[in-house]
Amino acid sequence: MNISQIIxxxxxxxxxxxxxxxxxxxxxxxEAHKNQKRDDGSPYITHPLETCMILTNLQADEDMLITAxxxxxxxxxxxxxxxxxxxxxxKVAFLVEGVTKLSRVYYKHNMADRQIESLxxxxxxxxxxxxxxxxxxxxRLHNMRTLGNIxxxxxxxxxxxxxxxIYVPVANLLGIWEIKFEMEDLCFEHIYPTDYSRMNSLVxxxxxxxxxILKETLKIAKSAVKSRGINAEIYARKKNLYSIYKKMVRxxxxxxxxxxxxxxxxxxxxxxxxxxxxxxxxxxxxxKPKRIKDYIAVPKVNGYRSIHTTVFGIDGVITEFQIRTxxxxxxxxxxxxAHYFYDYSKAKKQKIGEVFRKHADWAxxxxxxxxxxxxxxxxxxxxxxxxxxxxxxxxxxxxDVIDLPYGSNVVDFAYHIHSDIGDHLxxxxxxxxxxxxxxxLKTGDTVKIEISDKVLGPKREWLQFAKTGLAKTRIKEFFxxxxxxxxxxxxxxxxxxxxxxxxxxxxKKMSSKAENEFLKNFSVKSKRxxxxxxxxxxxxxxxxxxxxxxxxxxxxxxPAKGTQSSYQVEINIIFKDRVGFLRDIAMLFSxxxxxxxxxxxxxxxxxxxKRLSMTIEVNNLRHLDEALMAVSSVKDxxxxxxx
Length: 643
Ligand code: MN
Known about the structure:
The protein is α+β, with helices and mostly antiparallel strands. Helices cover 55% and strands 14% of the residues.
């Protein structure tokens, strides 16, 4: 890879590119990195060059290409951000600052903090200029492509896991499938090497088996479309190994049942040609009934457009076609980036408007999460949930679609509709069945909410269950309006409940010095203030307990290294007896990956209540929290606590 290849690629879509500026940035970066080598021993400059080349595929603009060339200069060389700004201007310096990691020296004692703070800055800068995250994605993609060169196994895993947790969802959110799928498969390869190679060989074998059918199908489809006077590009679609794997794990089905045997893409010039091509294919191959989807006439919620059809192909092999125009294809492969840059010389007004609206939503969410977060850890967790999480689509009784993060519950839904609905929520139904307000939703659910003026506000416990930033903010707003005394009393009560839940009879005593240190963690001056902030929802009671008690105090002795790596915890459950209660609990635990190792006794007490005591296996405190909270939102539960 060299700089003239990049300039050539960029000029194809950007004829007015300022070549000299690109060359200047390149010489500057080359000089700055001249004494550095990559893990495989090649000159460091190969990395910024490759990053830059990836961006030309996204049809990135000049500033981004320059940023890509310079992105590691302030982090790793003798030149500072100021030097970059002096030479290439404030705008480029701002972009570079967003991409680069924070000083290695300053954070040398806490690299985990450095990572978290760097991520935070990346997102906050990206909220101001989305181009930063695109450069970062390209940077990360190249690092993933060369991950195999890193010798240190745990470092390798750390990078792969971070990519899967953070950058893959970002690419997904922005709809940049091209990058998402490649990154995802690279993560898959490094995190689950055995499964990866198994999937890889399954796909390869099936490709070899179907090779002649594929060739024949391509030939016939091409000539059928061409005979209608359409100049189309037709090719076999690449499959994303990780998504096939996930589907197999999720559904428990076999490879051959999941993997569509032949999948082709047909790219044409305009919408009319899409329908002509569809006609040509249907006259050549018999379509499978009910498998024609016209996402051009009715685009998907996320704006996706294409026509899909499944036909009985050669030798009856099930064959899937996706038909779309070039513009639809670019929109699909490169998502928000396509809207940003493609065709920018004759940008359509409406399109630009749509991009800005989407971006504004995104930026607003990031800033909301920042307002909400008390620590950088909270911030990154919030990002993971509100921004990166997979989405679910649920319905109101009138059939309106509501888009929420995966894991959302009735409370999130209610506040999403309107804060009054949340504040006055009396009861709820999912698909006609009565449920608790903390019941989790899944795609396709219809949610009905009953409200009443007699309900005077949300429940404080909901704060523990609410998943979206919006619901949390609204609930807190409600409690902040209440009197300090009320919040103090509520705080005490929440603290008491949490202690009971974890089976602690009395709050730990502390020396006044230890107490001051402890209070500092929450930026409060007194215990009273802490309790008030627990009451109004500003401070999470779980965080307080987790800070106060050590892991061992709450979970018991850690499992021995090298054996099974889980803690044995005994919990008690009291519930109103009904058919299927135990099944609900077992299902719930299995979804959370919690193993039930023993059920001790099961006896009825008065009031038709039963008491159940069981030993469960959890990985850590967070896992235990999840388990306890999940149990406490099951229908007919009276009480749950750790022994
Ligand atoms: Mn880099």
